[in-house]
Amino acid sequence: MSNSLNISPNEDLQKIFDSAPENTVIRLAPGEYRQKAVIRTPGLTLIGSGMDQTVLVWDDYALKTDEQGREYNTFRTWTIAVCADNVHMENLAIVNDALHPETKGQEVALSVLGDNFSMENCLLRSTQDTLFSGPLPPDLIVRYTGFHAPELLKDGHLRQVFTNCRIEGTVDFIFGCGDTLFENCEIKSLYDVRNVGYVAAPAHSLEQQDGFVFRNCRFTFEDGVEEGSIYLARPWRDHGLCLFENCSYGRHISPLGFDKWNDTNRDQTARFRETPAVPGRVTWANKR
What is the CATH number of the domain that holds 107? Predict the structure, then answer.
């Protein structure tokens, strides 16, 4: 039988997450929880009062400097980091409201570094790099060893499911190496002064066969986003893997669909597919 806690916005989320026994259900009252916290306890369930009522929010960004004068880097900017397995969330919002990524850099709202993570009826909102679906690519695990906490460098096969959620952002706002299913979600592109955006930035290894799966999702946009200015995905590493299955697209999505990532040759290795196929996409999609 699970334990259960009821908490309010004036309570310390980090203390609650650290002290709660495994498999505890934590019910969050309506309000703004302006706190940054990491979940290390397996099996926690967080239940809010609605994605427009229970809001967990913070405002770190990549170019911010810490007390030692070091830049935060993308992977310390999260509002909530999940570093335990079997965590579930529903009916809440997780937001990074730093804004202005063109001058501040990446701004993660949710970082998931646990296996068997699930989220339902939730909102994730930021700008660049809203959702990190871990793990990191192997080269970055090596690069950041000794800089990031070990819990942020977790390796392995991490599975995640997002159902009936809304995920909002501008550039690469769903990124990482997780085997992640997005089902019946709204994927919303927000306005960016740079007038170009990318939804997904996958970095899967060649051995992975699931990658990011967008199933029955709606790709929408807010006012100000230009027609054809948003790409569905670009490969963050060579073998990035995305499947778009029975999705609907607004006029903001580029007819080409996909980008190869700057001056790389990742068009030769990326694994991007749509079903049913959409005419006019780049010639290298739907081939692998």
Answer: 2.160.20.10
